[in-house]
Amino acid sequence: MDRTILLVDDEENITSALVRLLRRDGYHILRANSGQEGLAVLAQNQVGVIISDQRMPGMTGTEFLSRVKELYPDTVRIVLSGYTELNSVTDAINRGAVYKFLTKPWEDDLLRANVEEAFQRYEMKIENARLTRELQQANDELRAINRELEQRVELKANEVVRNLNVLRVSQEILEHLPVAIIGIEEDGWIAIANRVAHRLLSADGTKVVIGEAASDVLPADLLNWALSGTHQEGEGAKPFFLGERDIACRCRSMGEFSKSSGVLLIIEADMQTELFENWLSVSQEGQP
To answer: Does domain 177-283 sit in CATH 3.20.20.140?
Structure first.
């Protein structure tokens, strides 16, 4: 970043002396011979430090720097004048319009040191402003991300609730079917069994078969056929013997509408009327 300084003085010899002194420090130096001309220069250039004489016709140095503070508050403003004008500058210093008061005649090294300090102050202001903008941008982006995340969480929560409701409805439908439904995972464990299935697999219908090994509750020939993969879609019911009753069993592979694997057994007993009555008695349990 170029260090640009504006020198404002109606005396040409003063600005020329300052230029000779400050040129060695590598500054980009601009000049103006009045406060009004200084404002015109500032409108066209980005300036970091301003040195202005106090006693100028038309607009004093403090009046000029007060105006600069309003228009370009980041600039560092120095007034250059004699001791006799200190009182007129004090109010401007107190109001923040003037950063420092340097006297005429000046001591070269001290003036150069003050200008260096002024540029460091200006550059710190600019850097702080940049960091503030970046922080604000980061905060805005974070808020946008949080809003998007909240929306996604809300959508996901609604989806979970809908899926849970669908699952409850599906479970209720499954429990009220007048046929036995048994889902067997590919590792041979029973994952699904409705009330009719429990009724069919135990005398009083109270034995819980979900989580049991299918080999412990189903005939070996039925289980081997179900897990063999030889059955065909649309194939008719296949007869088996379960306990003391003949049954007709259909088998479907799971996974067509879900990520489940294994098979689904649909079992009808040979005495459909008796089975339906059993189902009806189960579904009416607990009703007045």
So the answer is: no
What token pair was written down for 11? 């005396």
pLDDT digits (tens, 9 = 90+) for 148-164: 999 999 999 999 999 88
Query: At the topology level of CATH, where does 4-131 sit?
Result: Rossmann fold (3.40.50)
Domain boundaries, the chain: 4-131, 177-283
Under the banding of pLDDT at 50, 70 and 90, the label for residue 280 is very low
Spatial strand order in the sheet of 28-32: 28-32, 4-8, 49-53, 76-81, 100-103
On the CB side of 85, CA atoms within 13 Å amount to 18
DSSP string, 65-122: HHHHHHH-TTSEEEEEE-GGGHHHHHHHHHTTS-SEEEESSPPHHHHHHHHHHHHHHH
Q: What length is written for the chain?
A: 288
